[in-house]
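Session log. Operator J.P. requested a structure for one protein chain; no other inputs attached. Running the standard single-chain path with token output.
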Amino acid sequence: MKERVFYYSDPVNDDFAGNSIKTVMLPPDYGYFPKTSIRRGFAFFFYHFIATPLVVLMQEIVYVEKIVGRKKLKGYRKNGFYLYGNHTRAMGDAYTPTLLAFPKKAYIIAGADAFSIKGIRRIVEDLGGIALPLTKAGYKNFFTAMRRHDELGHIVALYPEAHIWPHYTGIRPFGAESFHYPAESGKPVFTFTVTWQKRRILPGSRTVVYVDGPFLPDMKIPLNERKQALRDAAFSAMTERAGNSNYEKFQYVYRPEGKSD
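Structure written below.
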């Protein structure tokens, strides 16, 4: 018997993260990069010498996580690439890109909620968070920052499903728009698909993450076609890998009215 049943009406927009964060509107001129050398030095030390070791322990202890196919990223870290993953955990999904990018830093595009908790915005920024704007005015600065990440050869992670569905074992529909960045710059795309699998001895589940790619944009075709081709390749790889899940903690049931128990 499943621990809980979630009822959904819109697989694209329904969210089951369960947080009660009051979203703070970021200013259009929000600064995406630290301006001082002291801040940059602190961010480097905090990320590599404090956060990363803790991430390794958390993923091992909490999720008993195994990564399959990490070797596919070898040779691509120097110039940077884009990572696309499914969104089934609140914290674990923020940690896996760190393991995949190592020894480089992973930058993660996140919703404004992640930057709205009083007192920790700077920590989120230092950990590589890239704030997604809520207003049209904010996107000009955001796109400038994304192009800067490309120029610096950074590794950027995105969750095209956008919303968290805890322990969901499928891949939800997502569009091609989030593939604008690699389609524009020509950077490679890799997918990482989190699957939920039974533990061999202890009860419960563990996560096994499958890395696929590289998927390279065809720069000879129009931008919109490039975005769609990358989206289709990523969706196909993630859907196939999701079939490896064999543990379903929660049940998701479609109901037009969207009611839940």
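Operator note: Helices lie at 37-61, 92-101, 121-126, 139-151, 180-185, 223-242.
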